[in-house]
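ok so i was messing around last nite and threw this chain in just to see what happens. nothing serious, just curious
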Amino acid sequence: MSQAHRDDAAGPVNNAQRDETRAVLGHHYANGALPSDQYSDRMGTAATAATVADLRELFGDLPAPYPLSLGGQPSPGQPPYPAPAQPYGPPPGYGPPPGYGPPPAGQGAPPYGYPQPAPGAPFGIDPRTGILFSDKQKLIAGLLQLLVGGLGIGRFYTGHTGIAIAQLLTCGGCGVWSLVDGIMMLTGNVTDAQGRPLRD
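result:
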């Protein structure tokens, strides 16, 4: 071991040294010099080692080759163990395509296949009419009307309080009115009190 390598034994470990240590341990394991349990233990130690000396201890009882970045001498015919150039991310010099970048903080792109919400239309725009969708949902309004329509709950939900009170006073038109109203909410083009179509 050279004097320069002895001096940096207390120095911190860098990623290239860890990667080369793992590669050399893998070489020893593949050649039968390390049993699987020792190999697993040493790989764990290599991942958590704080100093170069900690990494060098992993090779105290092993034959050559040793990691060159830790001061080992190559054995005859030993190819150098190159550290991976850049293990994560795009190759150097590449970034996002022009016009694209990370989304603003707190916002992500909608899932693939879903339309982008329009500004000022948080629930989208009806493609047939161009009218903003309501914040109320067809399924909820329809189920409320079918299950407790005799009390006008589905119409209270959509904001039609006049119709809801009429249904409340007539017990949903003896159940017929609330049944038909619930089916219309689920399948038809019922709007909320502001005239916006209910969203799916």
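not much to say yet. Confidence is low (pLDDT under 50) at residues 1-7.
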